[in-house]
Design goal:
Number of domains: 2
Helix content: 25-40%
CATH topology of the largest domain: TIM Barrel
Largest sheet: 8 strands, parallel, barrel
Radius of gyration: 23 Å
Oligomer: single chain
Shape: globular
Strand order of the largest sheet: 6-7-12-13-14-15-16-17
CATH superfamily of the largest domain: Glycosidases
Strand content: 15-25%
Number of helices: 14
Distance between the termini: 46 Å
Length: about 475
């Protein structure tokens, strides 16, 4: 149980508001007991996901559930809570129970970097199952970065035929000097989502009230794109063996073709991700241009996407540089004390509490991770969301320089994502010890331990599809689409 919702009835209980029963994560939802639905003024207006769940008894003593909600999300979340109650109480359900529940923040998210290490459609779906049970509702998919381009763009096929691959590295350490991006001899590492894959993930998320938010990171972190299309290089004499460090992998924003390229890429993004889906444009860690040049270029990109009717999200460097009109994703922890400076909506994902790629303890058995910073479960649980009107969301980030393989990903995400969900939903405070004890009832949110030795073995043995296999997969997928049409 991960939050204390408002409960009325013949008993006083701790009720899980953000954590549903473990059945959802396994894809098995029990047949409902008697459930009726109606809408009431008790449910707050304009709050996506609010609901009232009641338990009463029929004349013969059978449990009768009723749900009051203003939208499908509320009904979905009420069902997760009902399943959790069944799991926790078993045959000892109270005679009468009433739950009023609604989220604090509209954006309750996880971020997954598929550029540095690749995760399959099935693995992303499995992650969304766990998110849905936690009432997390945004999956921020980091589709592009220096080490790999992971979305099919039909107008620019070399982005995936070249930029989606790199020489396989069989050590767990992340070192740019060992990253040889592009196709070559020997075993390669990589892969990408076809547009059909992404539509499938969007549909899967919609069933679980999760919006997949695509990020195409411009103009920095663009090494894979630059390798695929060298005419977009930022400066002459670029050495692909030595110039790919952070800040040195930016597209040429002085070249008019670069903005046209970025807009054309996003045109296809908008075709895949349905109307109403926000898009993330990156904008972080660019060090080779003046602040004014970056501001002008990013403002043009933001304005273009807004003209297409999309909400735009960007990392906080853009707002600090004067770009306007975007939702600001704040990752610099030193910005938490000055959020009043932002006039735009703010999503919090600070390195101090929300970077789930950081280590969880000082133990030498912990997998290798970025830097030496430790973010413990207690750190996430104790995070105080600033009382700032423009804060609309909270998100945990899973950057994958060191995360290779789904077991490792789950270990880094859980149970810290459960603590983040509690803060984002807005549960009243309760003792950390109670939170930890409640997790034991829901073991799917406490991942199996994953050690440094396991990390080493995965690095030595993990293999992705090879380019030729990926081409066969794409061809078969297209043939199936044609048959379906």
């Amino acid at each position: 149980m991960l939050m204390r919702s408002f409960v009325r009835g013949s008993v006083c209980v701790y009720l899980l508001g953000v954590l549903a029963a473990g059945w959802l994560a396994e894809g098995v939802i029990p047949a409902p007991q008697r459930v009726s639905e109606c809408v009431t003024d008790v449910v707050p207006r304009d709050v996506e996901g609010a609901y009232v769940l009641r338990l009463r008894r029929s004349g013969d003593g059978e449990p009768v559930w009723s749900v009051q909600a203003r939208n499908e999300a509320g009904r979905f979340y009420a069902e997760q809570t009902r399943l959790q109650l069944l799991r926790e109480y078993g045959d000892d359900l109270p005679e009468v129970l009433e739950v009023e529940d609604f989220p604090r923040l509209p954006w309750r998210g996880l971020h997954l970097d598929v550029s540095r290490h690749w995760f399959t459609v099935a693995e992303v779906k499995a992650l969304m199952d766990r998110m849905a049970a936690l009432k997390l509702n945004r999956l921020h998919l980091h589709l592009t970065d220096g080490p790999g381009w992971r979305m099919e763009v039909k107008a620019f096929p070399r982005l995936t035929s070249v930029g989606a691959w790199r020489q396989n590295v069989t050590v767990p350490e992340w070192d740019w000097r060992r990253m040889v991006v592009g196709r070559g001899d020997g075993v390669l590492y990589g892969g990408f989502f076809t547009q059909q894959d992404l539509r499938e993930l969007v549909a899967y998320g919609r069933e679980r009230h999760i919006v997949i938010v695509p990020e195409v990171d411009f103009p920095g972190h663009s090494y894979a794109a630059m390798l695929a299309y060298p005419e977009l290089l930022a400066y002459e004499g670029f050495n692909f063996d030595k110039s790919c460090a952070v800040g040195g992998d930016a597209l040429d924003i002085d070249n008019p073709k670069t903005l046209a390229f970025a807009c054309a890429v996003f045109d296809e993004v908008l075709q895949v991700f349905p109307e109403g889906t926000p898009v993330h444009v990156g904008g972080d860690e660019v060090q080779v241009f003046s602040r004014e040049k970056q501001r002008v270029w990013m403002q043009r990109l933001v304005d273009y996407l807004r003209s297409r009717g999309r909400e735009v999200i960007a990392w906080d460097e853009t707002a600090m540089n004067g770009v306007r009109g975007q939702t600001v994703m704040v990752w610099h922890a030193d910005q938490l004390g000055s959020l009043e400076r932002y006039e735009q909506p703010v999503i919090l994902t600070p390195t101090s509490h929300c970077y789930f790629d950081f280590r969880q303890s000082e133990s030498e058995s912990e997998p290798l991770a970025m830097g030496r910073q430790v973010i413990r479960l207690r750190d996430v649980f104790d995070f105080e969301v600033p009382a700032f009107d423009h804060v609309v969301g909270l998100q945990g980030n899973l950057w994958t320089e060191y995360i290779r393989g789904f077991d490792h990903l789950l270990y880094m995400a859980f149970p810290r994502a459960a603590a983040l969900a509690e803060r984002a939903w807005g549960s009243p405070r309760r003792p950390f010890e109670v939170f930890v004890a409640d997790l034991q009832v829901h073991p799917q949110f406490v991942a199996e331990p994953f050690t440094r030795e396991q990390q080493r073995r995965v690095a030595e043995s993990d293999r992705t599809l090879q380019p030729e296999e990926m081409e066969v997969y794409v061809r078969r997928q297209r043939e199936a689409q044609r048959c379906a049409e």
